[in-house]
Amino acid sequence: MHFSAPAGTPRHLRAHALGAIALVAVVLPLAVLGAPASAGTVTAASVIKEAKAAIAAQSSAHLEFDAASTTSSSTEQIVADVGASVGTETVTDGAAVLHVKVTAADGYISGSASGLTSLFGMTSAEATKVGTRWEFWKKGTTQYKNLESVVSVKSLESLLPKSKGTTLSTKGSHYVLAWTSAASGSTPKLNNTLTVAAKGTTLPVEEISSDAAGEKVTTSISKWGEAVVEHAPPAGSTIAASAVTG
Predict the structure, then answer these.
(1) Which of 75, 82, 156, 221 would bridge with 87, disulfide CB 3.0–4.6 Å?
(2) Is 232 within a domain?
(3) How far is CA 114 from its chain centroid?
(4) DSSP letter (8 states) at residue 241
(5) Cα 91 to Cα 111: distance, rounded to the nearest angstrom
(6) Kind of pairing, strands 27-29 and 41-43?
(7) What are the residue ranges in the chain where pLDDT is below 50?
(8) Is 44 helix (H, G, I), strand (E, B) or coil?
(9) For residue 79, is it within any domain?
(10) Using CA atoms, how far apart are residues 6 and 40, in angstroms rounded to an integer?
(11) What are phi and psi of 154, to 5 degrees?
């Protein structure tokens, strides 16, 4: 259940990257959880709208992502601290490890040889040149922008489904959005749920996606608004991208 990412960016299994939906939204009384007083009823569409606005107002968040399979002992994991313009992310898939770090001036990647090739897309020769160092790109380059988008809190808006085809229910003090993603290419049909806080700020808490084969992806989101500060690695541990691909 591997989903492709743009060339030169880490490969992720995030279910929110998937396709279209075709169910009908369910309407619940506002009184259930005290949703926004500006409306008379709460719907999947209104929760999605509120959550999108809430995410846009945030400066940072912490993510923990796990993709597990019933047919394999290998689990892909992603741990990230995303900010407005800086952040960090570590992707682990078996022995393959990839680290992404973005500061206000540069974007960096490092990792194991298999992480640099299978997760980031380097050639074996390029991975050998990088070795244990951090390859970096200056701010303003296309690659920097790609890495910045990976660790941007704004990217979490893509956790939200389209309102069409999304049903709404409640669980405790949370809303639960549910939808189905149609099969596309090598990606199977997925059943998805997104749990969103119903009291206070309407922010996502957890997304779960699963397929018929028993593979399951869980993304937990927490620490909204906590400061994310990233510093450049020591100069002696870095290598410019031009020295790797040149």
Answers:
(1) 82
(2) no
(3) 21
(4) H
(5) 9
(6) antiparallel
(7) 1-39
(8) helix
(9) yes
(10) 42
(11) -60, -30
Is 211 inside a domain boundary? yes
> What does the block give as tokens for 230?
């990233």
Question: 52-67 burial, b if ≥16 CB within 10 A, otherwise e?
Answer: eebbeebebbebebbb
Q: Please provide the size of the chain in residues.
A: 246
Structure tokens, 90: 């570590």
Rounded to whole angstroms, the Cα distance separating 112 from 89 reads 14
Amino acid of residue 52 = K
For the stretch 74-132, pLDDT in tens is 678 999 999 998 999 999 988 999 999 999 999 999 999 999 999 999 999 999 999 99
Q: Would you tell me how many other CB atoms lie within 10 Å of the CB of residue 1?
A: 19
What the block records as the tokens of 125 is 């020769």
Q: What is the pLDDT of residue 67?
A: 87
Max CA pair span of the chain: 62
Sort strands 96-102 and 87-93 into parallel, antiparallel or unpaired.
Answer: antiparallel
Tell me, yes or no, whether 2 lies in a domain. Answer: no
Radius of gyration, alpha carbons of the chain: 19
| CA gap 42, 50 in Å, rounded | 10
| CATH assignment at residue 126 | 2.50.20
Give the whole-angstrom CA distance, residue 183 versus residue 77. 23
Domain count for the chain, please give it.
Answer: 1
Q: Letter for the amino acid at 242?
A: S
Q: Is residue 220 within 8 Å of residue 196, measured between CB atoms? A: no
Query: What is the separation of C-alpha 61 from the centre of its chain, rounded to a whole number of angstroms?
Result: 11
Residue 117: which domain range? 15-222
Structure tokens at 174: 């949370």
In angstroms, the Cα distances linking 200 to 23, 34, 40, 157, 176 are: 28, 9, 18, 18, 16
